[in-house]
Specification:
Order of helices and strands of chain A: HHHHHH
CATH superfamily of the largest domain in chain A: AhpD-like
Largest sheet of chain A: none
Strand content of chain A: under 5%
Structural class of chain A: mainly alpha
Radius of gyration of chain A: 19 Å
Shape of chain A: elongated
Number of strands of chain A: 0
CATH architecture of the largest domain in chain A: Up-down Bundle
Distance between the termini of chain A: 50 Å
Oligomer: homohexamer
Helix content of chain A: 55-70%
CATH topology of the largest domain in chain A: AhpD-like
Number of domains of chain A: 2
Number of helices of chain A: 6
Amino acid sequence: MSTVSPADQPPFDPRVAAVFADIRATRGSDFINHFWRYLAFDSALLESTWAEVKQVMATPSELDPLTKEMLYIAVSVANGCGYCVHSHTTAARAKGMTPAQHAELLSIIALAGKTNHLATALQVPVDASFDQDH
Amino acid sequence: MSTVSPADQPPFDPRVAAVFADIRATRGSDFINHFWRYLAFDSALLESTWAEVKQVMATPSELDPLTKEMLYIAVSVANGCGYCVHSHTTAARAKGMTPAQHAELLSIIALAGKTNHLATALQVPVDASFDQDH
Amino acid sequence: MSTVSPADQPPFDPRVAAVFADIRATRGSDFINHFWRYLAFDSALLESTWAEVKQVMATPSELDPLTKEMLYIAVSVANGCGYCVHSHTTAARAKGMTPAQHAELLSIIALAGKTNHLATALQVPVDASFDQDH
Amino acid sequence: MSTVSPADQPPFDPRVAAVFADIRATRGSDFINHFWRYLAFDSALLESTWAEVKQVMATPSELDPLTKEMLYIAVSVANGCGYCVHSHTTAARAKGMTPAQHAELLSIIALAGKTNHLATALQVPVDASFDQDH
Amino acid sequence: MSTVSPADQPPFDPRVAAVFADIRATRGSDFINHFWRYLAFDSALLESTWAEVKQVMATPSELDPLTKEMLYIAVSVANGCGYCVHSHTTAARAKGMTPAQHAELLSIIALAGKTNHLATALQVPVDASFDQDH
Amino acid sequence: MSTVSPADQPPFDPRVAAVFADIRATRGSDFINHFWRYLAFDSALLESTWAEVKQVMATPSELDPLTKEMLYIAVSVANGCGYCVHSHTTAARAKGMTPAQHAELLSIIALAGKTNHLATALQVPVDASFDQDH
């Protein structure tokens, strides 16, 4: 079920086809996951979203690729996006995440969820020494 | 402002004092941040929470200390916990996070926030190949 | 699957039947979607919820009906309510939302999700000029 | 700071004055907290919101008044509403919540926050026996 | 579908078997729900999570068992954890929650969700009298 | 307080100065609000974020400027971003939002928050007729 129809059969809109070709080339795989197929209901939204994902996630940068996927999982869990949790857990595994690393990732996410709730329940005032606003 | 009164002057409850001493020894610093001072309104809750934070965040493990702090920031941002964002950004800086790493962390969190919203708006069905349930 | 049993076969509780009749009359359609059928496990909760939805969403007001549905979608996406995203996207289409408007709606929701995360990560102080508290 | 101006000086709009009088009578106190003063920027919104709060929270019902306030705190913490956490923690204390009950409330909220994150990270399928949909 | 494989057939890891045995003994039932079977992909995470759930939820304390389950439901709804809503609604029913109590619980959760959104939209400043920070 | 230092005094990094100049030209105002001043701690993140905001929010499109601001408010409220609620409420007023429209916006956001919580608590299954996935 989805709120839009997927682009799952050729011939596609040429703009969609170009993005799909770039996804395949960037990832070195023929597989296009559902997120892109459904987002393709609007070619401009598909293009701009893929451009940003490619820039942030698939370009060599300060952080290593596995760390980036684990950060993506952390945000997706806290935001309750089931699809995103699935897709980025799969990506993290493909980039070498071991079961032990997965378990540690979950223990940190769970602990942060716990202390986030505690700090909000206590309405703890921010320590003056944390401030960078000067 | 807070929903409870802090433990900010000695003499403390001995159980609180013991936790504060362990926080200082573990961190090698005299500073006790507000989260622990306000959580000290209940010594049992303080003890169990610190024990878990120490185990997960201050014990050598699969992931390096800076990665762990960045994951904590990611969850805290998505959960909207201002205090937690402040405290763990300060901790990440103390563990060596550079401005460039901070900026990249924010670009990943922001992108995940964006695509989380898109996937939820599209109600994208999970790809069969993501499933580990077998 | 649900946490309650639906009211999906007549004869109904007369209070449920009255609400269902009013939903049909207000919408000009025989179709009663699942939300109301499951909420009918408690007739008082059904009555008060429908009364409020009818007042806010089905009464001529400052905002046009399509804008109101798009606002409902925006909140439902941010809150991660899959059912609500589905039902209000369907309602928005019935009120004339075009694919281009749908795509623009998603681009705004996605951008807001992104900058919400950035502002929270930065803990930006509110500008004095924004304040209406005088 | 607020996004609207409060109604904090008489003479008020008579509809606002009537709601304020009913709040005072219902609570047996002269104090009107900020939520109502700011919501008073729109008298209809003030009236309908107070009517619902009075019906749900201030009318004898299945659940006792303190349990109702603790449930309100639980939702408000999870939704990250600082003002609501403050106002309902104050209300719970006024209805007899002890420090030990407050600490236990926080330990349940924190644990639920933790396991909510774990279940979402694992994407646990719902057990068939939980289903009431028949 | 899940992001990990469940432990659903003996022989198990002895640490997993020990936790499952304790769950059965504590609950007086042979049934082990999915949350624990999937969390068992990491025996240490299973052990620590069960120990905390047992301590907080299955040990006699200030709050009665049904109130504790309703609080868990409240947090789980606000956090959008479908699995958790199902499992704790089932648990609350097993502990005696009536349909009338369930309906009242939902009316409080729904009202809190509503006023949480209003207070955030208004950015209501916290009343000085709510402060416990002294 | 903030987690980064703002760029609030010239001379700026030329890339920051160029973005600030474009913000001023686009908005026809000298005022640069805090979000951009703090985001300027990283010029690349500032550039890409402003480019997207300008494209989505300040370019003539399917939806009118006031509707776009109200949608932004709706998402920001649901995500609990106080700064964003303030800045976009100010922007909506500047684009002509009346107090009556503001009140109606809040009544829709509040109602959506309420029924989002109800649908999640009930775990309502999606109606087959809502599906666009064909």
